[in-house]
Amino acid sequence: xxxxxxxxxxxxxxxxxxxxxxxxxxxxxxxxxxxxxxxxxxxxxxxxxxxxxxxxxxxxxxxxxxxxxxxxxxxxxxxxxxxxxxxxxxxxxxxxxxxxxxxxxxxxxxxxxxxxxxxxxxxxxxxxxxxxxxxxxxxxxxxxxxxxxxxxxxxxxxxxxxxxxxxxxxxxxxxxxxxxxxxxxxxxxxxxxxxxxxxxxxxxxxxxxxxxxxxxxxxxxxxxxxxxxxxxxxx
Amino acid sequence: xxxxxxxxxxxxxxxxxxxxxxxxxxxxxxxxxxxxxxxxxxxxxxxxxxxxxxxxxxxxxxxxxxxxxxxxxxxxxxxxxxxxxxxxxxxxxxxxxxxxxxxxxxxxxxxxxxxxxxxxxxxx
Lengths: 235, 124
Description:
The complex is a heterodimer. By secondary structure, chain A is of the alpha+beta class. Chain A contains four helices and twelve strands; from the N terminus they run E-H-H-E-E-H-E-E-E-H-E-E-E-E-E-E. In chain A, strands 1, 6, 7, 8, 9, 10, 11 and 12 form an eight-stranded mixed β-sheet that branches. In chain A, helix 1 packs across helix 3. Chain B is an all-alpha fold. Helices cover about 55% and strands about 0% of the residues of chain B. The chains are: A alpha+beta, B mainly alpha. At the A-B interface, strand 6, helix 4, strand 8 and strand 9 of A face helix 3, strand 1, helix 4 and helix 5 of B.
């Protein structure tokens, strides 16, 4: 595994978006993962739709029938991938633009741009997470956002942080060491794309520490899923 | 617990005093209004009336204290005023998060999942 890796350097990450005042983080995490997978499968970076998830994905958890994706009221990335496998795929942002509120489903199958081949859930193991990141592209992950409301920059590594997950984001890379100004220590970190616009965090990105002595900080390793896209030829 | 952590920080890095921006509570009270005004301008905020403005200022002050606490507990990052500084933690969670709770995620912790990814080689 390389010491540092960042899919932004390889063209697999779309622009930072803004979910606005709608609890649709899960759809940004899922669409971001499929954007990366589609890029790996076709060589094309397509900016994909979140609004299609918000309006049309009401898929329920196979193990929890009363737990279903529900637009601005929350959802799960793995259930979103299941929805895509049943619906056939995802339209582009251009064809199905984001409105930031729950609307009537306007999905048009003829406008599908990217389709899910399959998806899988990665074990709570940072080496496996890094290997899946490099093999499959950006990963859809859950995190505890307790410190993100006041986060401005740097490598977040709270002494105390809950591991119950309440936010969905996209893991796009990792670094061997990010200089931590105050404690004069280098900390290896994950690079995370958020969906709160470029005027939050480090141009829309968040860094959180990783490594054996801080494993699973804020639950960042505990809900990681990969998705692979259908190749252009099959399309 | 923040004080205990501060002690731990000092013990670990005796050479580095944890400098938390914002001084003590008096400074915070004095500076909060000017911070709030620049926050409102910077993020283009507008409130429906004087009561709402006063309420958001009080929330903002609480969030300045929270940012200071977060800085103490998370010294390798930078914490402070963000575009969410006029929201209570509950409003922030309700409006800007959105990951559904999942018992399956809990099972994952226990290593059960239908879509478990195959183990990949990580050496070389």
